[in-house]
Every structure is written in structure tokens, then in C-alpha cells.
Records
---
Amino acid sequence: MRPNVVLYLAVALTASCGEKEKQGVAASDGDTEPGPMVPVMETTGTTTGTTTSTTTGPGTTGTAPTTSTTTGDAGTTGPATTTGETTGAPPADSEGQMCQFNEDCPDTAQFCVFGECRDGTEGDPCEFHEECSAAAPRCIMMVCYDGSEGDPCKTDTDCAEGSKHCVYGKCYDGSEFDPCEFAKDCMDLMSCENNLCV
């Protein structure tokens, strides 16, 4: 058993025996011999030894352990220092909090995606467009994107107004030397030659 459990049991036994005496009941069931000594151990700090002590209270038929504290060379340390990194569960008002449903998430990270609360900014995981914020409203390949140049896409609607052409799976604005499949993939008055806007 752990020392603190032994100590707890010893104290509880002592209290129980004392309570029986107050009620006029013998503390032991016919035993007149003292019971075994129970060691009392220090459970916190650093000590140089272990103390065992027993005492016989008035009117008891056995020995009852009492607690005593030994003080040795207990070392102390200063407060822990941090390096700016955080560990453990994230604060309740930030991304990364565990969830099952959107209702489990705070207002600052209102989307529950793959078991974690997210705010839907660009780069956050998603399953649907609705799990992305207005700043990055497109869920492409399970990631929120804003549809800017170079972002992945499936159709032109996945791309933002400034880079509205989806060519070979990426958004482009159709400027000179951008890839293209058709003339519509290029800016006005440009053509698509050899799969490049010119």
C-alpha cells in the first residue's frame, strides 16, 4: 500500500476506537494485548529519516498510532520558468479545444472539425464550406482557403475574385505566363498559347 493510504487507515482506526469508548463499547473485541505498530511515514518533501511513534490513550486496551512529522533537509525550488510554449489543454476560448458538436465550441472557434474547435481561418481543417470563416470560405481538399492565387481548387467558383481561374487544380488571375487551358483562363485581351497566357 502507499504510505499515505496506510496513514489514513491508521488515523481512521484511531478515531473509530476513540468513538467506541465514548459510547461505552470496548475499543477491542476481547484483545488485551497491543496490536501491531503502524509506521507513520512522511509523504511530502525530503526527509533524512522515518519516524515511528505510538501512544496509549487513556482507557484504551491497545496502542493507537499517532502522526508525527519529521523535518529534515527539505529542498525548495523557485517558481517554474516558461519558454513561451504552452502544454496541456488549450484555453477554453481558443482553437484546439476538444468537441463533438459545434455547440461544444466557444464563439471564437465555433466549428467542431475532426474533434477539435476551429475558427475556420485559412489552413484550418474542414469537411464542408460551412466550417470555414468568411475570410477563407472555401473547403478544398479538407482545408479552408480564401481562393487567392496558388490556392487549390476544383472549379472557378473555388477561386476568389482576384484570381478567378481554376487551372490544373490551382487558382490563377490569368496574368502573363500563368498556365491556361482556354483563352477564358487568361485576362481580357490575352490568349492561351502552349498552355500559357500571352
Note: The chain has one helix and ten strands.
---
Amino acid sequence: MHSFGPAYAQWGRDCGSDILHATVFGKSVIVINSIEIATDLLERRSLIYSSRPSSIMVGDLMGWHWHLALLPYGKIFRAYRRLFHREFNPRAVMRFRPLQLKATRDMLQGLADSPDEFFDHLVHMSGKTIMGITYGIDVKSHDDPYIAAAERADASLFAAGRPGAFYVDFLPFLRYLPEWMPGAGFKTKAKEWRNHADAIFNLPYEAAKQDYLNGTSRVSFISQCLEALDKNVKDFDEFVVKGTAASMYNAAVDTTASVVKMFVLAMIRNPDVQEKAQKELDEVVGRGSLPDFDHESSLPYVSAVVKEVFRWQPVTPIPFPHMVTAEDAYNGYRIPANSLVIPNIWAMLHNESVYPNPSSFIPERFLDSDGHLDPTVPDPSLASFGFGRRICPGRYLGWSSVWISIASILATFNIEKAVDTEGSPIEPSSECKPGIVASPLPFPASIKPRSAVALSAIQAAAHK
């Protein structure tokens, strides 16, 4: 899946066009390689470009019909979006900062205690944050059943959600084959994977609802929505609350952790960047001190590092496709109704005319000559978080979680190549798991506290 982005980009260069067309099993597929075309179509014409194709495998057989990312554009989708905006707009998400800080600082303690398990610590941090915010559930152990359920669900959804992953989405009659027939193995997988979808839709919600009814719930998205329903708020119903929560829970755990894993890889390969970011943190926050959200505006280089992580290896290089619901025309091209429209995020963020030397990790590209963030350089989050009415509604929360995680790790740890038994450096692989989300496969790293003072700060913060 992750090779599709570069392949589509090369296809576009070969054809001399940033908008491409193919027919797959009679289905029209449009690939967009430029942010300008994506903006023109997916944002300015969002009324007809905001739906999703129906997926027999994911929606019908696996039971993901409730997920925001897969809903067709319509009444239920708009209800989800209104609820998301109400609870996760830029001002509203600030109330979650204490929880984000707690999860981040617990992660730092985990890195200090068992640095070789940094993948697990990053997933645990992401899960702890989103479970607390969404359901008011305090995740403590690394084998927490809710995080494990989310990881299983993510793996199945991201595998099945790849365009062309299963023929049944292009040849619908295959759904009627009995499981024992050759070629019907997808039905056995779907039955198993449906259990994962049902688990994340039902289990955490029922636990949070029971806490609410018992009067023991923490303040969370669910508790506030249930309180509103008790007051007969008519803007949403329980299904919308449940589906919105599960969509957020499913989407956030793997994506946030994957971005920070990419950051670790980038620091191993670019020690000069790490050194510059640490110098800025030492000057602004103080050596051995932990950054807070209030420091963000005073840390432009750190913010540039975060932007470059999003750009360098986008975690959704080829996202779920849009579907255009009416025939359209663009720059002389006819776009048939019901075409799949795939924004190639990888190509947009590796456009050499916008981001020179795009394969290199260069945070300075986002800074002006005075070292301030340059507003004239396109922010990669404009593409990373999607377009139009399909833009990620949790983007403000996602950015802040990634920013505080990266700033905190830089302030307290040195990240270097691991060494083998003979003391030779190990070059980490950037290979990713197959699926919609580009999550790196495990790689070794040496992660050590920068100083005794930094370690003391980590320990003090973790025990508050």
C-alpha cells in the first residue's frame, strides 16, 4: 500500500498530469497527485466529492458501517461531524491537555525504564490519551484489553480498507459464495474480523455508560454526551454518540503512535536535527525541564520538526477514497458520477516544487531567515488530515498530542542508532506494515536520558 504513493506520483510524471484515471473492474478510479487539484475538487466542490464508496467487505461483511471514515455523505455523517465539532473544536480540546500531559509523562517514564520497548510505550500513551478523553477509562497496564482490542480492529480495518484488497468490493456477486468454495476465503476472514469491529463499538461504550449510570464516571466525551441526552438534547442520539466515540477510539490509537514512531526513525537518521531541537528546548524551557503546551509558540524549530515528520513519511499516504456523487468536469477532463477519487497524500507532500529535496528530513524548510515559522510554506497538515468535509475532525487533538510527545522526548532523551553485539551501529529499516496507515515495523533504537537532571524530572512528573 505504501508503495502506491510513489508509484502514482511516477505515473503522473510519465503522463504529464497530476490527475489520473483508470478503470478497475468497470469502476472509474481518479488519482489526484497535487494539493491544488485536491483543494479545487475535494474542498471547493465538496458537496459532490464528500461521499464514500460502499464496501461490501468492510461495511457489510465486517460490520464497520458505523465508522465515520466509511459513512456515505448524508444525515448520519453530518450528525457525527456536528458532534465532533462541538466537542473537539480548537477551544474545546484545551480541556484535555492535563490528560495528554499525564499520558505523555507516563510514556517518558516507560522509556526510561525499558527503552527497548519504545513501540509499546508509544502505543500505550496514545491509547491512554484517547481512552481517557473519549470514555473516561484510565488505562494503566500495557496489556490493557481496550488497547489490545483497538490494535486488532485497526489491523483488520486497515488491511481490508486498502483499495483493491478484496475482489468482492469490485465483484459483488462473490459475497454469495459459500465459505468452503475456493476463492471465498475472504468470508472466513470477514467473520473473524467482524468480532474486532463489534468489540470496539460496544465494549468501551458499555463500560463508560455503566460508570455514568453508577455516578462514578470521569468527565469524558461519553459522560458529557450522556448528560446531554438525559437533558433531551435533540442534536444527536445514542447511536451517533456511540459511533462517534468508537470512530475516534479506532482512528487515534494507531495513527498518533505511528507519527511518533516515524519521529524516532527521523532522529536516528538526522542527529543534527535532534541537536538543534534540543538546543532550542534547553534555551526556552531549561535543560532537564519538561515542556508544556504553553511553550509551543516559543519553540518554532521543534514545531518545524513536527511538521516535517508529518510531511516526510505521511502516516496515511493513500487514505480511504472519496466518491463523487454527480458527473463533473475539470480542466477538460470528464469525471463520471460514482468514481472513486483517491488523494495521493504522499505525492502532495513530496512535491519537489513545494518541498525541495523532499526525501530528506529538513525542518528548516518551514522556517524563515529569522528562525520563525514561515506562513508562506504550505503546512503539511493541510494534506495529512484530509480535505473538505472529510477532513479529520480530531486534527486539533491529534496535532497537540504529537507535538507534546515529540517535544517531551527531545527535551529528555537522546535517540541514536542501536548497536549489535560487536558494537557496530544498526541501520534501522523504514519498512511499514501493509494497510491504510503507514505504521513502521519494529526497528531497534538506543534511547537514553540526556542527563541525571532529565531523569529526575521524568520521575518527578510521572509520580504527580
Note: The chain has a mean pLDDT of 93.
---
Amino acid sequence: MSTMFEDQIRHNIRSTYGLIVGFIVFVTIFIYLVGYVLSVYYGDSSISLIFLVAAFAISVLMSWSSYYYSDRLVIASVGAKPADPIRHKQLLDIVEGLKLASGLPSMPKVYVMNEPSPNAFATGRNPEHCAIVVTQGLLDMLDKQELEGVIGHEMGHILNYDILLATIIAVLVGTVVIISHFIWRMMWFGGGRGRRNGGGQAQLILLAVGIIFLILAPIAAQVIQLAVSRRREYLADATSVRLTRYPEGLASALEKMATYTAPVRTATGATAHLFITDPLKRRRRKSWWANLFSTHPDIYDRIERIRAM
């Protein structure tokens, strides 16, 4: 089992660096193409060179920011607040206890979302810089042993370095979508001037590129999220069982969470893969097509596997 976890850690680290390099290449090419079209649009060849230099600088800066600050961006995006030492004492005690059991070098920061839908996720860049986020609905729904199972699962993501890859993906996927809309808006900005200066052909090129990226961006985002193997959820479940020594705690928690059909209001397509269960759709998937493009394995299959441990 330890070899499996070690392989997952190495895979996550390699995937993270590969994703960052791929993102730099993608953004550089994308912004350069925008600059090239604009150079034709305005009849100034220097624009494409300026955009090329700017594109590389921007992509490197964004990748660096994603590595060091992606966890803060994700926590802010879901509106999570630091856990209250008095109100959330049981939660903090559970996290501290599992921190000791897991051998984490430092206590994860703990946050609570004011959200009725039961869910949780872990974020950060390594076990020394990590956080666990739970919803108020999760705290209200689960008993202590079930909550321990969920926290153990999130500890698994921290120990296996899932958090680094998953958190960076959340930020970069959102960035890709924003960039795809950038060129769409540029298509209309100054369009009249471009046509008056004979730039009608460039305008059509810009329109075509904008449409292509608007179509491909969500597809690319989905593919990138699926690169975060759903196998990591099974490994995190196994880690939870190893830490708590009580499979029924996590299995029962997942059963209760599966009955709650409302989505997490602050979750988005970019952050869905972070959560312990799918925060956007909670119906049991029956078609192979739906399962193929899901960010999470079937929750009932996970429950069966946990109870078989």
C-alpha cells in the first residue's frame, strides 16, 4: 500500500510541473496569436513582438502566483472563514488528532463555509502549507466519527500531495476560461475603426479565433480536471480508513452526503474537483458517458469499496 501512495505522490509532483509548463506554453501562444491578429488589424508589425514578450512574462507570473497563492484564491472564492476556536472546537480537535496520527509536520489551517450543502476539501501546496475547508452543512449533518472519516480523507489528499495539483488546476482552469473570453470582447472593441482602416479581414480572423477558443476552453478545462485522476479519491478514502481505523465512519458520511441533492452554491466548474463529493451534481450516475466526464468516481462505488476494506 505504501508503494501505491509513494507512486501517487511522484505522479502528482510530475503532473504539477508538467501542467505549469503546459500552461506557460498555452498562454504564450494564445496571447501571441492575439498580438499577431492585432498587428494585422492595425497595420503595425511591432505589436506581435510586444505581445510575445508580454505573453511569456504574464504566463510565468501567473504560474508563479498559482503555485504560491492558489490556495488563498480558492478559499476566498468559496467565501470560507477561519474556524472559530469555541464554536468549532470539535472540528479543530479532530483535525489536530488526525494531524498527529498522520505525522503531518504542521497543523493545517481550518476554514468553514457558510453553506448548507455538506462537503469539504483540502488545499495548499504541500503538507507544511495546507488548509482544510468544510461546510457548515457538513458539521450539522455528521456525527463525530463520520466527521473524522471526512477529515481523514482530506488528510489523505494532503499527505499524497493531491492538494498542490488540484489547487493549481482550479486556478489555471479558471484563468483559461477568462482568457478565452478576453479575445471575444476584443473582437468588438474598436471594430468600427478596424473596418474603416481596411481591417475587415483581420476582424473576421479575430472573430473565428474567439469562437474557437470559446468552444475549446470548457472542453480543455474538463480534460485538465480529468487529468487529476479519480483514483486519488479512492486513495484518499483508503488513507482515511488507515488513519481512523474505522471504515464505517467515512462510508456513513458519504451515504448521508449523497442524500443531499442541493449543490454547493459557491462551487464552480473550476473548483468542483477539489471537493470530497461532486458539489454540482449529486444524482447517481448511470450512463458510462456521464461517468467518463465526471470529476469524481461514483459515490456508491466508493462506499462499497470502503466497507470492503
Note: The radius of gyration is 22 Å.
